[in-house]
Amino acid sequence: MANLVITIDGPAASGKSTIARMLAERLGASFLDTGAMYRAVTLAAMQAGVDMSDEEKLLGILETKKFQFAAKEGKMTVSIDGVDVTEQIRRQEVTANARHIASAAKIREKLVQMQRQFAANEEKIVTEGRDQGTAAFPNADIKFFLDADITERAKRRKAELQSKGSSESMEQIQRAIEERDKSDESRAVGPLRPADDAIVVDTTDLTIEQVVEKLLCCVEEKKRKSTAVLRTPYGENAKSAEKEIGSCFRRNDNVKNSADSAVKSKKPKMRWFRFARWCCKIFCRVFFRMRVYGRENVPDKGAFVLVSNHQSFLDPLFCGVYLKMPMYFLARDTLFANRFFGWLISSVNTIPVKRGEADLSAMKKIIGKLKEGNGVCLFPEATRTSDGKIAPFKPGFGLLCRRGEAAVVPVVIDGAFECWPRHKKIFSPGSEITICYGKAIPAEQVKNMSDRTLAEVLTDTLRRMQTKSRIKHGKKPYNY
Ligand code: C5P
User: Fold this and answer.
1) What is the pLDDT of residue 167?
2) Per-position DSSP letters for 116-152, written without gaps between them
3) pLDDT attached to residue 232
4) Any long-range contacts for 186-190 (C-beta under 8 Å, 24+ apart)?
């Protein structure tokens, strides 16, 4: 492996390629443009007329064609079976089709292997893409995540396209970038997200030269420190690393949050909570056949929001009972009318919310709980499903996540609808209930997503998780 690995990830048109190339040049390092690899496989598949949804055939293309990637004069040259395709892979149709290749798990695995191979032969390397800091080089020496405002990115892309003679409007360009972001952020494998220990740089108001200077300043700062510190994963030493780098960059807030809020976090009445959880677990074991997946995706400290689909009255219990940390929930205020029940649900961290109006006091409480470093469970469909399907999420919850500086964990509940649909007075014992916790979207990434995008990405993610879970357990998936 190279002695120095620097990863630069970020969304489309955030300036990664240019900046990575310039940084590599200044450091005398090799440069790897991993997007070019996805583009090359896309072009080869298009040339061979392969069905873009047929993963096996696409894999066949990667295995039978000879792809060569070489860094020449600070530029990646790409050839397929000896034919130079460096320019062709930049064509619009290739850009549009690349998402098929990018979401094919086996192809990603092979390309990541090739990227590591490439790095193994270099002394220093700057590599850019979407998953370099998270999947390809999780132990990289320095990880950057570049981002910029969507209109700024569209402006940059327009200038680039104009210089090539294209006359696409700003709206078309912006829409295309948003679609690519959405597809990159929501795919199941190697999704676009900052690594927990990445240095996030907002390039909106910076020139290319300014960004390169800032990244160089980080690299130099790191070099000056001892090798021991240089190799320390930021995740474990967020605070000292923060000092070490200086104040010009924001470390991924998700890490900062966990460290800070773990200190601030007030301990809820743990003994009562543990007893209540134990009772709920017994209840689940007696009445249902529970399957729980992906618990490791739920942070055990720091602010996070569990975003779940809503199938039955038992959903808050299903979402929270298998987690170590006490969760906070929202419930309509009328449920607190009965004194005993009101006391019971309050004692397990349920906050009353007025129905049919923007309840500012409840929102403030939730944000406060998140800021203290707690987990909150939300059901953004706002009501229980009437047919088992996941309805589009209402975007309002994005504000809570951003203000609370929380990571977002998608959760899918399956089987609770069959167990206790809306029209039934009581649940059917013996039902199979599946709970799947998906990969978290870090707080820093949530901060940069609009409410609408966050709601759409999560609706899509939960529907895909639901489909996967139903197929896995031999149930017919819902048609969306
Ligand atoms: O960076 P570039 O726009 O050239 O990448 C082309 C496409 O390849 C992206 O839209 C993205 O979907 C995919 N890609 C990826 N992982 C990478 C690099 C690129 O999925 N590491």
Assistant:
1) 83
2) HHHHHT-SEEEEEESSIIIII-TT-SEEEEEE--HHH
3) 30
4) 186/457, 186/460, 186/461, 186/464, 187/99, 187/102, 187/103, 188/103, 188/105, 188/464, 189/103, 189/105, 189/108, 190/102, 190/108, 190/112, 190/130, 190/131, 190/134, 190/135
Give the pLDDT confidence score for residue 121 in this predicted structure: 85
Which atom of ligand 1 lies closest to the CA of 9?
21
CB neighbour list of residue 136: distance below 8 Å, 6 or more residues apart: 7, 34, 112, 115, 116, 127, 129
Which mean pLDDT values do the consecutive 10-residue runs of the chain (480 residues) have?
88 93 93 96 97 94 93 81 95 94 95 92 93 94 93 92 85 93 91 88 90 92 56 32 36 38 46 91 96 93 94 96 91 90 92 80 90 94 94 92 94 97 93 96 89 91 95 93
The response to whether residue 99 sits with its C-beta less than 6 Å from ligand 1 reads yes
The domain ranges of the chain are 4-244, 256-472
Asked if 402 contacts 335 with a C-beta cutoff of 8 angstroms, the reply is: no
Distance (Å) from CA 11 to ligand 1 centroid: 9
Centre of ligand 1 from the C-alpha of residue 476, in Å: 33
Place of tokens 């320390």: 232
Residue 341 tokens, joined: 């029940």
Cβ–ligand 1 distance for 11 under 6 Å, the answer no
Please name the CATH architecture into which domain 256-472 falls: 3-Layer(aba) Sandwich (3.40)
Pocket test for ligand 1, best of 69, 130, 132, 186 (most atoms within 8 A of CB): 130
Q: Kindly give the distance from the C-alpha atom of residue 181 to the centroid of ligand 1, in angstroms, as a whole number.
A: 10
Taking CA atoms only, the protein residue closest to ligand 1 atom 21 is: 129
On whether the 4-244 domain is CATH 3.40.50.300, my answer is: yes
CB of 7 sitting under 6 A from ligand 1 = no
CB of 182 within 6 A of ligand 1: the answer is no
The structure's pTM equals 0.54
Q: What is the pLDDT of residue 55?
A: 93
3-state secondary structure 154-184: HHHHHHHHHHCCCCCCHHHHHHHHHHHHHHH
Could you tell me if the CB of 100 is within 6 A of ligand 1?
Answer: no
Show the tokens assigned to 137.
Answer: 């080089």
